[in-house]
Design goal:
The chain has six helices and 18 strands. It has two domains: 2-133 and 285-358, FAD/NAD(P)-binding domain; 143-200 and 236-281, FAD/NAD(P)-binding domain (3-Layer(bba) Sandwich). Helix content is 23%, strand content 20%. It binds flavin-adenine dinucleotide (FAD).
């Protein structure tokens, strides 16, 4: 079955909903296709103890402040899921769930969006598929001989799953620090490994300050002033309360990256090693863009070249929410609103120009 619509948004997490909010305001005819069975995007799958690194009011999508969560300055992931579910209902966003899009192709003056539940012909597409479904694991010699378990951030749920085990957490970003803290506080036998010494942000800096810094940087660059350095200059790890508690209670000092696996653990270049039952790779993600392959849009590091959110070589495609390359802080709740608005406006303008040409 083929349906016709002006805009297809692929992905119904926070980025897809923010896009839907602005498309609705502009009166466009659109549908949001989401592979998940229920609302909430990646927030449905995070570990039990995950809390946001910003207070609720600083974690809001356009139009609707996130309510505070009782007793919590930093809401948990369940609260975000409830907020997103309520958000799409409130704005009556046309989300179709359980729809996995596997290809987008050019089709004359339209774009064809192919899914396991039918095909849509659209004038424009917004890709908002996030990164959660594309975990990244670096290659390390001997990986295939290691007899223990190897997991990624996406697989981790709670320390009880590792009771009595020797666990290595790899990663010096927020996920690595939070999962290491979670395990350390539960007295799992933990080794924490980071590529460079962990850089904690000052205790009074949270996501609010990070957003302000990212915005100031974008403004400086837009106005032709020198680069202010962005959030990376402040540190890598937000010292959210559980991380602070673990750090102060003796989170083990991070070791540098090991150089190889053995059958029972890992080894460093100097020959020292540790035994491990499990390795948890907190080594990041890549954008989930493989379904766009038929468009043959080239970029660097798995990205597609963009001007703002618009794909440079396909003006009918916008990319939203993947990180700074698709808008400053666009991979955060508070940061995705502005690029979502810009994408919706650009598409509205494109459709208006197209309509003028046809008349
Ligand atoms: P997602 O939430 O991943 O949503 C994408 C949706 O698209 C999913 O529902 C997916 O099923 C669907 N999809 C994917 N591919 C297809 C396809 N081919 N067809 C159909 N549907 C598809 N941000 C903050 O603002 N504050 C925080 O404190 C914070 N903490 C974070 C902690 C962790 C551990 C991580 C990983 C991220 C954190 N973020 C935080 C960043 C960010 O807010 C989340 O990553 C967020 O989930 C990104 O939203 P999204 O809509 O872009 O992607």
């Amino acid at each position: 079955m083929t349906s016709r619509v002006d805009v297809v948004v692929v992905g119904g997490g926070q980025a897809g909903l923010a896009a839907g909010y602005h498309l609705r305001r502009l009166g466009l005819d659109f549908v949001v296709l989401d592979a998940e069975a229920t609302p909430g995007g990646a927030w449905q799958h995070t570990w039990d103890s995950l809390h946001l690194f910003s207070p609720a009011a600083y974690s809001s999508l356009p139009g609707r402040l996130m309510p505070t969560q009782r007793g919590q300055t930093y809401p948990d992931a369940g609260h975000v899921v409830e907020y997103l579910a309520e958000y799409e209902k409130r704005y009556e966003l046309p989300v179709q769930r359980g729809v996995h899009v596997h290809a987008v192709r050019r089709d004359g003056d339209r774009v064809r969006v192919e899914s396991d539940s039918g095909t849509w012909q659209a004038r424009a597409v917004i890709s908002a598929t996030g990164t959660w479904s594309r975990p990244f694991l670096p290659a390390v010699p001997g990986q295939d001989i290691f007899a223990g378990r190897q997991l990624h951030t996406v697989d981790y749920r709670r320390p009880a799953d590792f009771a009595g085990q020797r666990v290595i957490v790899v990663g010096g970003g927020n996920s690595g620090a939070q999962i290491a803290a979670d395990l350390a506080l539960d007295r799992v036998h933990l080794t924490w490994v980071t590529q460079r010494p962990p850089r904690f942000l000052a205790d009074d800096i949270d996501g609010r300050a990070l957003f302000d810094v990212a915005t100031a940087r974008r403004r400086a660059l837009d106005e032709g002033r020198s680069d202010t350095g962005g959030v990376a200059s402040l540190g890598d790890i937000v010292a959210v309360p559980p991380v602070r508690a673990a750090r102060d209670a003796g989170l083990p000092a991070a070791k540098p990256m090991f150089t190889r696996f053995t059958t029972t653990g890992v080894q460093w270049a100097d020959g020292s090693g540790v035994l491990a039952d499990a390795i948890i790779w907190c080594t990041g993600f890549r954008p989930a863009l493989s379904y766009l392959a038929p468009l043959r849009l080239r970029g660097q590091r798995g990205h597609i070249a963009t001007d703002g959110t618009r794909a440079v070589d396909e003006p009918r495609l916008h990319l939203l929410g993947y990180g700074d390359w698709t808008g400053p802080a666009s991979a955060t709740l508070i940061g995705v609103g502005r690029p979502a608005r810009d994408a919706a406006r650009a598409i509205s303008q494109l459709l208006a120009e197209e309509a003028k040409r046809v008349r």
